[in-house]
Amino acid sequence: MFKVGIGQAEGLDTERVVTKVIRHCQEGMDGMAPRAGIVFTSGEFDHDRMLEEIHGHFPGMDLIGCTTAGAFSSGFGFSEDAILLLTLGSDTVEMRAGIGADLSKNPEAAVEAALKQAGAEMA
User: Fold this and answer.
1) Which residues on neighbouring strands pair with residue 9, listed in sequence order?
2) What gap in Å lies between CA 116 and CA 123, rounded to an integer?
3) What residues are paired with 89 via a beta bridge?
4) Rg of the chain taking only CA atoms, in angstroms
5) What count of other Cβ atoms lies within 10 Å of the Cβ of residue 38?
6) Tens of pLDDT along 44-63?
7) Helix, strand, coil percent content, the chain, rounded in steps of 5
8) Among 7, 40, 96, 116, which is least packed by CB within 10 angstroms?
9) Per-residue model confidence as pLDDT tens digits over 1-14
10) Distance between CA 44 and CA 83 in Å, rounded?
């Protein structure tokens, strides 16, 4: 089985916005723990606090993401000054993240490093 949670909320208060986002994701996951997540967020938020809340509610979840000038999802549409979190869970599929640095300088090495790191976490 595969489950997806989508949480998106707009505002300026990091605590309030991330709490809404987490609640929406939990509802979509319907009790399944997410294995991976992708977060897109405005640069206006307290990112340390946001990540602390996300990891506190979804411990062990691999998370990737970036800042953005706006977020868009099928469930919530477009919003600025928003946090968008996509959580992914499965009882049959493993999901892991790896970091590939300096992609523009040496794409092959960056991808190889990311795959190696992600694979090592699965072993």
Assistant:
1) 83
2) 11
3) 3
4) 15
5) 15
6) 999 999 999 999 999 999 99
7) 35, 30, 35
8) 116
9) 999 999 999 999 99
10) 10
The count of residues in the chain is 123
Burial of 41 (0-12, 13-18, 19+ CB in 10 A): buried
For residue 57, give both structure tokens.
Answer: 């509610």
Owner of token pair 């208060």:
13
pLDDT digits 0-9 by tens, 76-103: 889 889 999 999 999 998 888 888 899 9
For residues 108 and 85, what is the distance between their CA atoms, to the nearest angstrom? 29
Residue type for position 12:
L
**49-71 core/surface letters (b: 16 or more CB in 10 A; e: else):** ebbebbeebbeebbbebeeeeeb
Q: In this structure, what token pair is assigned to residue 104?
A: 């523009």
**Phi then psi dihedrals of residue 25, to 5 deg:** -65, -45
